[in-house]
């Protein structure tokens, strides 16, 4: 699930982009289903999937869609924090008095480097239709148009610059061995990744400039989600966490 989710209690504290708070997900679903139910944040699912695939013991998965969430693996374990809700880098501030966010704050990273931001950058361009809306196929449509339209190309470059700022902050804070960009935005990697790499090179400190950066395969999150019931039932071994 997107947003602030506590897999230990089976509840969603806050899903800002769909305006849901304090939802006992497992409690609600258990009224209709008798089998075990597990939930987790989509960023954590992606991070765990990539850890199992690549065996990099310190990595960050940056899930970019309508918003931005991250999953963090430290020494081969998911890092969840004291309340199970670590990884909300999308709501760290990169502009002190910036764009208002659904969370109630201002200048949150996801307001500058997500699908919401991409749509805003596109609307600022003269050669993009005003009727363009936030939709599940926004990124794929924009990628198609970017092949011939400079406005779409500029929008992706701008998004890449801001995405790089946030990732540089993460790298400087955590010094991971690998950063992986996933989510719907990953399909546009060729359009924004050079900007991300440029910004990281200039903003990351010392050896952090050389932290490996790559793009996730499209099934990373669902593969990680599938590992939840497998780990808890067939393997009888909950996902490692700190």
Q: Shape from CA axes?
A: globular
Strand content: 5-15%
Structural class: alpha/beta
- Kindly report how far apart the N and C termini lie: 20 Å
Task: Give the number of DSSP strands.
Answer: 8
Q: Regions with pLDDT < 50 over 5+ consecutive residues? A: none
Mean pLDDT: 91
Tally of contiguous helical segments: 8
Order of H and E elements: EEEHHEEEHHHHEHEH
State the helical fraction: 25-40%
**Which sheet architecture does the biggest sheet show?**
5 strands, mixed
Order of strands across the widest beta sheet?
Answer: 6-5-4-7-8
Q: Indicate the radius of gyration in whole angstroms.
A: 18 Å
Could you name the key traits of this structure?
242 residues; globular; 40% helix; five-stranded mixed β-sheet; alpha/beta; three-stranded antiparallel β-sheet
Provide a descriptive summary of the structure in words.
There is one protein chain. The chain is an alpha/beta fold and 242 residues long. It has 8 helices and 8 strands. Strands 6-5-4-7-8 form a 5-stranded mixed sheet, with helices on both faces. A 3-stranded antiparallel sheet has the order 1-2-3. A hairpin with a 3-residue loop joins strand 4 and strand 5. The longest helix has 25 residues, at 150-174.
Secondary-structure map with pairings?
Layout: E1 4-6, E2 11-15, E3 20-23, H1 25-30, H2 42-54, E4 59-64, E5 68-74, E6 77-78, H3 110-113, H4 115-123, H5 138-146, H6 150-174, E7 178-182, H7 189-203, E8 212-215, H8 220-234
Parallel strand pairs: 4-7, 7-8
Antiparallel strand pairs: 1-2, 2-3, 4-5, 5-6
Helix pairs in contact: 2-8, 4-6, 5-6, 6-7
């Amino acid at each position: 699930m997107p947003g602030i989710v506590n897999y230990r209690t089976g509840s969603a504290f806050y899903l800002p982009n769909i305006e849901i708070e304090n939802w006992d997900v497992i409690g609600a679903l258990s009224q209709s289903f008798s089998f075990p139910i597990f939930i987790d944040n989509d960023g954590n699912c992606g991070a765990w999937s990539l850890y199992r695939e690549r065996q990099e013991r310190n990595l960050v998965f940056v899930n970019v869609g309508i918003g931005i969430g991250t999953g963090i693996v430290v020494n081969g374990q998911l890092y969840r924090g004291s309340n199970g809700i670590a990884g909300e880098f999308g709501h760290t501030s990169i502009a002190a008095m910036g764009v208002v966010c659904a969370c109630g704050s201002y200048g949150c990273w996801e307001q500058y480097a997500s699908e919401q931001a991409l749509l805003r950058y596109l609307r600022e361009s003269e050669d993009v239709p005003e009727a363009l809306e936030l939709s599940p196929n926004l990124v794929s449509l924009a990628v198609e148009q970017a092949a011939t339209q400079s406005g779409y190309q500029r929008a992706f470059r701008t998004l890449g610059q801001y995405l790089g700022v946030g990732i540089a902050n993460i790298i400087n804070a955590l010094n991971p061995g690998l950063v992986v960009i996933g989510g719907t935005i990953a399909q546009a990697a060729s359009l924004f990744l050079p900007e991300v790499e440029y910004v990281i090179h200039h903003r990351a400190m010392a050896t952090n400039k050389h932290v490996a950066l790559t793009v996730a395969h499209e099934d990373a999150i669902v593969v990680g989600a599938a590992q939840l019931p497998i780990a808890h039932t067939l393997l009888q071994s909950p996902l490692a966490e700190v």
